[in-house]
Amino acid sequence: PPGTSLPSAQGCWHRGVPREPGARWAELGCQSCTCQGGQVVCQPSSCPASCSHPLPAPPGGCCPSCSGCWYEGVARAEGDVFSSSNGSCTVCVCLAGNISCITPECPPGSCHSSSPADCCSCQPAKCSFQGRSYPHGAHFSLDGDECTICTCRGGEVECSFSPCPVLDCPQHQRLLRPGQCCFTCQDPPAPAGCLMDDNGVEFPVGQIWSPGDPCELCICQADGSVSCTRRDCLETCPHPIRIPGQCCPDCSAGCTYMGRIFYNNETFPSTLDPCLSCICLVRAV
């Protein structure tokens, strides 16, 4: 019946399947079974390590595979060439489940560059310049010439002029001072006078003038500004004479009477009473 062993001549009957004497087969759970003397004998499958870095067993499988490589947690295909993860220039290859790595040999001495892309760890060549030694990447100035900057690169010295800023002043206001490498903008010259916007007339510093109102006086300051003040008329008289262009009435030249001007001690008839005679007397009241 099914599930029982058969006589040796008839082999074995296992899980509804007949097996020939000496037959071997794999069962689920990584069991290896064999038919021996009519009996089914099962034991865990043995996986001999035939390579150094086999791939893990695939889903449903029991034994790892040597058709690829498992290296540092990454599956590598057969013949795959890759760099080591330690940051060095070691190159590895996957062959039949085995990993072989090769590290290049670096020549002794200095090199021309210290770029991280270079595999060999070396010290860039130093520079000898004007009797002095400078390490790679050093910046220095020439003796007595602060305007020239030099750089040591792989044993060679490169020199160039110091960059100068872009100036926003006109050419005639640029000045190269002693000991400096670049031109600078000098301060514009002090104003020589005051420029009036209304008529374009320029007055020298200290000049006093009236801008149109005879009672207002303006003076040109040293910084080019204009300062203006108004005058007060303190002298008064009953009939002062107003002279065109003069701020205050004049009480010393004569008298003004009914729109006419009479000089001092001048006699004239009254316009209100022809029998009256008037005289201009210059005196303060």
TrEMBL record:
Primary subcellular site in the record, as a coarse category: secreted
Classification via InterPro entries: vWF_C/EGF_Fibrillin (IPR052080), VWF_dom (IPR001007)
Residue ranges occupied by any VWFC domain in the UniProt entry: 10-67, 125-186, 192-252
PROSITE patterns, sorted: VWFC_1 (PS01208), VWFC_2 (PS50184)
Annotated GO biological process: cellular response to virus
Name of a matching Pfam family: VWC
Location relative to the cell: Secreted
Keyword Secreted: yes
GO annotation, cellular component aspect: cytoplasm; extracellular region
UniProt KW keywords: Glycoprotein, Secreted, Signal
Domain of life: Eukaryota
Signal peptide location: none
Presence of the UniProt keyword Signal in the record: yes
Protein name per UniProt: VWCE protein
Species of origin: Tricholaema leucomelas (pied barbet)
